[in-house]
Write a structure and sequence with these properties.
The chain is an alpha+beta fold. It has one helix at 2-34; strands at 45-49, 57-61, 66-70, 76-80, 91-93, 98-100, 107-108, 114-116, 125-126, 128-131, 134-137. The relative contact order is 0.16. The protein binds FE2/S2 (inorganic) cluster (FES). FE2/S2 (inorganic) cluster binds next to loops.
């Protein structure tokens, strides 16, 4: 009987310590999630002065992997250069202002919409903001989409 009590005591102590350990891990994980860094200004890529970008033109930013298009009405959209088929880098055809993938020939328009498969969804886009006369692109947070919507265009 005494041996049973000792084992039971050991079991309860182990159970108690395990429970406390799990709670400590849970609290630690919650704290890590809470301290997740917010979107700071340093996450944004400074594309340039708003006035630099002409209406109706597309501008490549190869090192940052996006194209910035300014529509005829002055709105901006930043589309990723990563093809949504298998991830090759699409290229701007200057004469047509279309984006073509060199790997399997998908073609996208200036909004990132698919004009020619095999890609089946539009290019991701990046949030655009304006500050102190500059166009800033949030290249850390690409937005996956299934279709183009006018809300994806940003105006000054
Ligand atoms: S990776 Fe672009 S069409 Fe296949």
């Amino acid at each position: 009987m005494k041996k049973f009590l000792v084992n039971r005591r050991k079991f309860l102590r182990s159970f108690f310590y395990t429970l406390i350990s799990l709670q400590v891990v849970y609290v630690f994980v919650r704290l890590l999630k809470i301290k997740k860094p917010q979107n700071t200004q340093s996450d944004f890529y400074e594309a340039g002065d708003i006035s630099f970008f002409e209406n109706g033109k597309m501008y490549p930013f190869g090192s940052a992997h996006f194209f910035l298009h300014r529509f005829e009405d002055g709105g901006f959209i930043a589309v990723s250069s990563k093809c949504t088929h298998l991830g090759c880098a699409v290229q701007l055809k200057a004469d047509s202002q279309l984006l073509e993938c060199p790997c399997h020939a998908s073609v996208f328009n200036n909004k990132g919409e698919v004009l020619s498969p095999p890609a089946s969804r539009p290019l991701d886009y990046y949030p655009v903001v304006f500050e102190n006369g500059k166009v800033l692109v949030d290249i850390a947070h690409p937005v996956r989409r299934t279709k183009f919507e006018t809300t994806q265009i940003k105006y000054t």
